[in-house]
UniProtKB/TrEMBL annotation:
This is Transcriptional regulator. Residues 62-317 form the Sugar-binding domain. Keywords: DNA-binding, Transcription, Transcription regulation. It comes from Erwinia billingiae (strain Eb661). It comes from the Bacteria. InterPro entries: Homeodomain-like_sf (IPR009057), NagB/RpiA_transferase-like (IPR037171), SorC_transcr_regulators (IPR051054), Sugar-bd_dom_put (IPR007324), WH-like_DNA-bd_sf (IPR036388).
Length: 320
């Protein structure tokens, strides 16, 4: 019997998949149409999924997300949980979580509110989410200094400016580097009047937008050069660090602070200062961050968590 070529196999798998998933023809009818057994149809449909010809995405009913949120609020002292549908594509997942945060801000931001802004891709996605939002004349303030990469779109200052354009109002820059080489240098910067005044205003913010980081070799801090991959692995394996809030305040799975080589070297709001802000919104869209989210929630600094359904389900399973 002559074997099919790879292209013919793909065509057959596609045709059968379309018949079953799109045209809703039963497997028995497909078997008769193609002159093959019912068992073989099942195998071919399975292969179509394995080879990526078929992708099955489950769309959750809003009630599903509401139930997840209720379960989370029963276990942690949170105001809200903004839970996005699951997507395999990381960028799309980030956009979906950002859409929820953007909508929440549009509904809750009050005129002349002060918002402290963190750094990172997830917060940048909120600023860049398209759509009309009400003008609130808010004051957006960088809650952490700038990185060494000029023009970086995920710098807190750049995000703050884009949020100001989006919601109206003004943006205030923290004129300091995010990272310095030692504690003495940080103390020198903190004595500067301009830096001190900006951070004092950020500490009194009504809302703070922060990211949650996890400990892996591809983290944002490794890309910035703050940590080497070896230091990240050492902090994770030997010190029990599971994540960070706002880019530098490190904690373990119990939410306890862990001393790292980054201590006293970052200019920005500390986790103690975040606790005093009425509403801290933490964003973690990546589906690898359940453990980091758990530690962050246990710090007591987070009031609203924005993440994926997969992360929240994993988190709930870990805290049964």
């Amino acid at each position: 019997m002559e074997k099919n070529s790879p292209s013919q196999d793909t065509e057959l798998l596609t045709e059968i998949a379309v018949a079953y998933y799109q045209d809703e023809i039963t497997q028995e009818e497909i078997a008769r149409k193609f002159g093959i057994s019912r068992i073989k149809v099942g195998r071919l449909l399975k292969r179509a999924k394995e080879e990526g010809i078929v992708e099955i995405n489950v769309r959750y009913h809003p009630v599903f997300s509401t139930r997840l949120e209720q379960q989370l609020l029963e276990r942690f002292p949170l105001q809200r949980a903004l839970i996005a549908l699951d997507y395999q594509d990381e960028e799309e997942q980030r956009r979906q979580v950002a859409a929820l945060v953007s909508a929440h801000l549009a509904q809750t931001l009050k005129d002349n509110a002060v918002v402290a802004v963190g750094q990172g891709r997830n917060i940048a996605a909120v600023a860049d989410h398209p759509g009309n939002v009400p003008i609130r004349n808010c004051h957006f303030i960088s809650g952490i200094g700038g990185t060494h990469r000029p023009g970086d779109a995920i710098n807190a200052d750049h995000i703050s400016r884009r949020l100001a354009r989006k919601f109206g109002g003004i943006s205030e820059t923290l004129y300091a580097p995010a990272y310095v080489e030692n504690r003495a240098l940080k103390e020198s910067f903190m004595q500067n009047g301009t830096i001190k005044e900006t951070l004092d205003r950020a500490r009194k913010a009504d809302i703070a937008l922060v990211g949650i980081g996890d400990m892996n070799e591809n983290s944002y801090m490794v890309k910035l050069g703050w940590f080497t991959p070896h230091e990240i692995i050492d902090a994770s394996l030997n010190q029990g660090v599971t994540g960070d809030v706002a880019g530098y305040d490190f904690f373990n799975a119990q939410g306890q602070h862990v001393d790292t080589v980054m201590n006293d070297r970052v200019i920005g709001l500390s986790i103690e200062e975040l606790r005093k802000i009425p509403c801290v919104i933490a964003i973690a869209s990546e589906n690898t961050k359940a453990m980091a989210i758990l530690g962050a929630l246990r710090t007591g600094a987070i009031d609203i968590i924005a993440s994926s359904a997969q992360n929240i389900r994993t988190l709930l399973n870990m805290t049964k």
